[in-house]
Write a structure and sequence with these properties.
The protein is mostly helical. It is about 65% helix and about 0% strand.
């Protein structure tokens, strides 16, 4: 029980700290592994409300921060909110992907799942950015070429989108490995799980010695 509480605390604190603006490079995020590992390690409704609730709370805080930092940037516009909704659809997909794994799954397979989740998140969210184009980037024409530009080159004045993809993969793999390691380190051993439990008394054949007297 204590191990599970400690793991949840590490899980939540790592995600919360990673949301501090400027702390990590662009698209080098805990969020991909956070959603995937929530599906792996948490049971029932908590696998959904814990990650999605924390993401929503921090997204609201970040939107308020960016709005105050640059009032000209309308973070509450319909296009921005529609784009954000696609992000949450991607988060839900990562949680569903994580539900296909078990906590006992090997680290190699979990890493594979984390990387796959990061790729899916990248494809979904960049497609949404191309589709809604909330900042009216002229490169994002509604053609196949415009979609490919959104996935590879991006818009002028910013790093190429493939660099974001690299950071997405690196962070997805790294934080999946860290969460998996934290879960293993905080998991209760079989000895701890049975500590204090009285072993069943063996039945003896025949009558007690006192009855024989």
């Amino acid at each position: 029980m204590k191990g599970r509480i400690l793991f949840t605390a590490i899980f939540v604190a790592t995600f919360a700290l990673s949301r501090i603006p400027g702390l990590l490079p662009s698209n080098f995020s805990v969020v991909y592994a956070f959603a995937f590992c929530a599906g792996v390690y948490f049971q029932g409704a908590r696998a959904w409300w814990l990650p999605l609730g924390l993401m929503l709370a921090t997204d609201l805080g970040l939107n308020l921060y960016y709005q105050q930092a640059n009032p000209a940037n309308d973070v509450w516009s319909g296009l921005n909110l529609a784009n954000l909704a696609f992000n949450y659809a991607a988060y839900a997909g990562l949680i569903l992907l994580g539900r296909r794994f078990k906590p006992q799954t090997s680290l190699v397979k979990l890493l594979g799942g984390g990387l796959l989740g990061a790729i899916l998140f990248y494809l979904i969210t960049n497609t949404a950015s191309w589709l809604f184009n909330p900042y009216h980037n002229p490169e994002y024409t509604k053609t196949l070429a415009g979609w490919i530009i959104a996935l590879t080159k991006g818009t002028g004045g910013f790093p190429a989108t493939w660099e974001f993809f690299r950071n997405t993969l690196l962070s997805g793999g790294l934080f999946t490995a860290l969460f998996a390691a934290a879960e293993k380190l905080t998991a209760e051993s079989p000895a701890d799980q049975t500590a204090g439990v009285r072993a069943p008394e063996a039945e003896t054949e025949g009558e007690p010695e006192e009855a024989k007297a």
